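Please review the protein record below. Tell me whether the encoded fold seems credible here:
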Amino acid sequence: MISKEFHASRRELYKNLLEDNSIGFVFSGEEKEDRGDQMFCFTPYANFYYLTGFDQPKAVFVAVKLNGVYKETLFVDHPDAMKARWQGVSYDKDTVKAETGMENVEYLERFEEKLPLFNRRTSLQHLYVDIANWEDGFRQNAAQKFAQKVLSCYPFLQVHNTFGDMALIRQVKTKEEIALHRKACEITTKGVENILSHLEPGMHEYEIEAYFDFTLRSNHARTAFDTIAASGKNACIMHYAANDRKMEDGDMILFDLGAEWGLYASDVSRTYPVNGKFTEQQKALYNVVLKGLEAAIARTRPGQPKDELQEISKAVMAEELIKLGMIEKPEEIMKYYFHSSGHYIGLYTHDVGNDEAVLEPDMMFTLEPGLYFEELGIGIRIEDTILITEDGCEVLSGNIPKTVEDIERFMQERRK
């Protein structure tokens, strides 16, 4: 999906984070059990994959910068015959070298033996680990456990966490990454078109969700996150998950969905009338949110502080709600506005990065204003995946029907 040269260039940036006389570790993560002999689908820790391109569990990337000499090694689990038989997992050092382009690949059984730690002559002064800021310290992952073990033996080492620096690196995308995001958005567009071609009253939310899933599977993609298909009052639940309500004539349904391609995500929200036609009230409220999104997109360009875009959307929506008589003062919008209106996107749907950053070309994020009127049984969120260009932005999900006119026309034409 993405070249060995890409990962090598990322490792070069990681190398520059390390001071001399340092050792750095990034762990791929471990599989988690679902039920009985079933495991959850494994996704490697994003920073590990970003550096190596290897997507299997229990692997460790190790970088050593010692007396001006730099060496990097990938340690991998040693699949046995049983795992190959039951799970089809079969690789060795040579195939991993060919896959990743890394010269030094070792099996985990030689991990401690190969480290310049456990000897009397080490001149190491710094220990670098990569621990995400959402990790719970009372339930330690492999990286935390290993750092604790090393410090128990070498308490003089200065410990550094590369997570924050890696986040800043990842918030600007390369051309290869952008191509993967673009493909994910193209598949998402097909999936939403399939939804609109079949959406009608009397269906359950999970039934219409299945049309999206079918499109993704048919295009060799998977969902970037669990799809939200929330009709009626369910749309006022921010992370609604059941997707089991039977939709009625006159309902609206909020979709929050996205395809993943090559581990890179798309993220789109749309809100549609189940019967293909907005009521006057639905249309008025929908256009409030749409104007908020359009105002933010119009200001999205290099040099714009990212966190201001949310305030732009909010101010426009507040003004429109005042016109409708829904509120009297701008601050009253908080009765209907419950979340921020955008996030970085990348290897994670909600990707890492500095929300206070000034936008620059090749950054990618979403804008997703939303308003929720529980007393009316209406929740509206409209979200696009956006790429910053040299002089503005490109809406990668822009071909998905979004205006009232386009939505009604598409649903009417596809049902003929």
Q: What stands out?
A: DSSP finds twelve helices and 20 strands in the chain. The first helix runs from residue 4 to 17.
